[in-house]
User: Fold this.
Amino acid sequence: MSEIISAEYSAQKENIELHIFRKYLASAPEDSSERSILFLVHGSSFAGVTGHDLQVPGREDYSAMNAFARLGYDVWSMDHEGYGFSGLREGQNSNIASGVVDLKLATDIMIEETGETAYAFSGQSSGALRAAAFAAAYPDRVTKLILGAMVWTGEGSPTLKERAKKIDQWRSNNKRPVDRAFFETIFSRDVEGLADNDVAKAMADSESRFDGFVPTGTYLDMCANLPVCDPEKIHCPVMIVRGEHDGIASPEDLIAFYEKLPNKDKVFVTMAGQAHATLLGYNRHRAIHAFHGFLSTPERRDPLYRKDSV
Assistant:
């Protein structure tokens, strides 16, 4: 197996820097195909370096970036404003709209580095909202879109109903604390037994490099400001992925979103044996497999298909 190459970049957002990172195989894919570019978008409670490139001591590779790199992808991710190695502007809370700006700045860097102007995106939880809102705002930069653990209106979400009890806290502070106990709840709040306990520990260790706080913007958006993206403005092929036991993403809410997507090249997948964090559970390999299948699906060739008709 070819060596995985890592690279890091930074983008300027007013007076702060955003951390952007990348992984790909040193040699070209064995089938000599063009190296596909994939951007992974993180959620509300941990940085991209934690969610997408996690190292769990003594365990099989939990890095989604490594997994996709080995499949031949040129994989990118970032720490959104206020997360990980990225700065936070004074008084800002890194909401979904801010995340769209972050992705625009990141893709500016990607255009310079790769020469390509459009890419596949995969977002999880509020990362799915960021990715969906970006696809609506910058359709020319998105080829395919995977929306995992997403919420649209919040209808039927017990997790958001419980989270909304602290809405005054999300409104009055631009940061919220995250600690080891919090990371354990990520894998236990929906159902127990679908993730290794050591994953939460590794996530807490990864996040301990930072200040123990993350921005409140996406929590506030998901509790008070939904919907924050319009499915009718997303024209690329879309895959929606929901874990069987996800307490945030209700089937009814996601099916309503799915039905409004104008491009008929779309897929809705329910992942059995998965909860909210589909890329960090025992069955993460099944999620990677499903994602890869969607991303590598060939273009339509039938004479009825016209790109300008979707």
